[in-house]
Amino acid sequence: MVNYVEKTRKRVKEADVNDLFIHRWSPRAMTGKVLNDDVLNTLFEAARWAPSSMNNQPWRFLVSKRNDKHWDTYFDLLMEGNKVWCKDASHLIVVVSKKTLENCSEYPSHSFEAGSAWQNLALQASLINVVVHGIGGFDYEKAREKLNIPEDYKVEMMIAVGEYNKNLSDEKQEKISGRKSLSEIIINGSF
Amino acid sequence: MVNYVEKTRKRVKEADVNDLFIHRWSPRAMTGKVLNDDVLNTLFEAARWAPSSMNNQPWRFLVSKRNDKHWDTYFDLLMEGNKVWCKDASHLIVVVSKKTLENCSEYPSHSFEAGSAWQNLALQASLINVVVHGIGGFDYEKAREKLNIPEDYKVEMMIAVGEYNKNLSDEKQEKISGRKSLSEIIINGSF
Description:
- 2 copies of one chain form a homodimer.
- Helices cover 30% and strands 18% of the residues of chain A.
- By secondary structure, chain A is an alpha+beta fold.
- Chain A has one domain: NADH Oxidase, CATH 3.40.109.
- A 4-stranded antiparallel sheet of chain A has the order 1-2-4-3, sandwiched between helices.
- In chain A, helix 2 packs across helix 5.
- Chain A starts with 18 loop residues before the first helix and ends with a strand.
- Chains A and B meet through helix 1, helix 2, strand 1, helix 5 and strand 5 of A and helix 1, helix 2, strand 1, helix 5 and strand 5 of B.
């Protein structure tokens, strides 16, 4: 049995940085307990303060709580491999971003900025030992159809949220990922 | 004269959340001092640990240090209104995201995930009172041309990095932004 942060101890820093970024990871093991609204709101509150061009805030979060009337619809969007562990989630979220401004002109940075909001959400979850796990393996078109997502919103990602299950995390052999080196992501001057 | 965080005191939380998300903002006032490489590396180290689908890490950062051989090229990408304050930056960065996987297939979440990495960078900067300010007001196509950015990378954003100038921040009338309410960004179940 290991705690949430303990699993990240093997990550190697290349440069000094606040541990909060190293401690965030994406567990799959959840208990099935329904988290209360205060917990969810603290996650969305973090997301809310992300930066955006002209403070446009293109991020939106569609939310279903375990066993509410939308739960089966959300759950059925998932690919089979993700259903296996998402069955123990408390909430499922679909992240979308608004592709246009009020005046209907295009807003090119909608996805990038929605990603910023998601990262705030993920870090806040990590700070309170709540599992959030971003999911790309779901049916994007079905999500649009079933959740009536308008054409001027892009479907970005799903998120599973839940209480961390300390007892299952080893059993499920969750692996902590490393990263590319700094030299692979930094380009001095020009390609 | 106010310090970096002091300016955010008027922000109103709707739900409990770690102050780090509230304290991050986007100053323009910088001193013109060149920050050392350790400072830059701590920002990129934070970015490096962002999550991505299959750990693909599509984010890349092109970097120019004040007065290095690329500085004028970077600076000339900026719209005139941004040159006014970016002249006091220490570094200018162009964020790009890789649109394809190793096997050349499309990778749809590249922008979203680059936004996550940027948010880590921004939060780490805030934690050490370094200015980072995301910029959409620059010539994207000229950036691609002048920095030889390949077609399979999307140009996402520029970032100005610098030492915070406490003495200028009031003078320049920098305003602290609020946010939409939680009820505007959360959708229960379905649109």
